[in-house]
Structure formats: C-alpha cells, structure tokens
Amino acid sequence: MLVERAKGGEAAAFDDLMRLYEHRIIAIGLQMGLSRDDAMDACQDAFVKVFRYIGRFRSGELFFKWLYRIAIHAIYDHLRHARHPGIISIQDLETRHPALEDGRASPALLLESADLAGKLLEQLPCLTRQERIVFVLRDVQEMTTGEIGRVLGLSQITIRRHCVSARRKLRERLFPRKG
After folding, report:
1. Domain total of the chain
2. Which pLDDT score, from 0 to 100, does residue 122 have?
C-alpha cells in the first residue's frame, strides 16, 4: 500500500501520494476563492504537514479523509491571508471544470462559464465557513455526503443543511428575484 510505504520513509511513495492528490487540493483551493499561487502554496503547506506527521497516521483509516482535513485547514489559513484572486483565467476555469478540457467546448461557452464561475467566487464570502467548504466539496468537487461527513466529522443531516443553505444564499445573490 502506498500510504504504508510512505509511512516507512520511502520518498518515491510519498511523491506518488502527492501526485495522486495535489490537483484535487489545488482545485479545492481555487474553488474556495484562492488565487492559483495561493492554492498551490496551500497545497504545498498541506503536504509539508502530511510529510511531517505521516508517521502518526493510523493504518486502517481513510488516508484521503486525513489528508483533506489537513488541506482544508491549510486552505483556510491561506484564505485569511490571501491576495485578492483577481481575474479568473481560462486555465483556472479548466481546473474548476475538467469536463471542459476535452476540447469540444466552444470559446463562448468557456467565457460564459468563466463569467459564472467568477460571479460565484465573488459570492462565496457570504457563506459561513462550514457552508462554503460543504458547498465546494459537494457541488464543485462532487464528493458524496458520506465522504464529506468522514472528512469534516459532520453528520449527513448537518451536511445537507449546510449545502441547502449555501445553495439558497448563492441563488439569491446570483439570481435575485425581481418584482
């Protein structure tokens, strides 16, 4: 098992773990509103902590749960000190929406998606910390409620409540009712 080899000090196994998870962690950082540089820094900080504490990881537990908790804390640390994300590039958009990378999407669709993604990122600060991470993990990363519960240590009912609340707040801000 890759994790056990990394725990044993095998550098190549740790490198493989990093390659396996780094793109998802960077994507979560971007989706939480970090700039690309800050998301990459948060990912690096997370893996430094993983490297430092992998010996404490209890075999038999889910590694991604442990890793995501560390990564989410690193992302929150960077959000507190983040530079303004600025303009969203097409490259950032492709990281957020991998399905668009197949080359079949038109430039107009990419720009429309980039515009919506930018508007969504602008509204994320209206969410509480829990709503934001649940929304990103559930609706953007497409993790199951059970997986999110294991990562965040929350019940499925609490996750659903945060998700519904986040969606409602974002819908009200992005598509206000007229009249």
Report:
1. 1
2. 81
Instruction: Give the model's pLDDT for residue 58.
Output: 85
Contact 46, 71 (CB under 8 A): yes
Rounded average pLDDT over 30-39 = 87
d(Cα 147, Cα 24) in Å, to the nearest integer? Answer: 14
Structural domain boundaries, residue 81: 1-86
Tell me if 165 is assigned to some domain. Answer: no
Across 20-48, b (16+ Cβ under 10 Å) vs e yields ebbebbbbbbbbbbbbbebbbbbbebbbe
pLDDT in tens, 68-85: 999 999 998 888 876 544
Query: What CATH number did the domain enclosing 49 receive?
Result: 1.10.1740.10
| Coil, strand or helix at 176 | coil
Q: Where are the alpha helices (DSSP H) in the chain?
A: 2-7, 11-31, 36-53, 63-81, 90-96, 107-123, 129-135, 145-152, 156-174
Residue 18 lies in a domain: yes
What is the average pLDDT score of the chain?
81
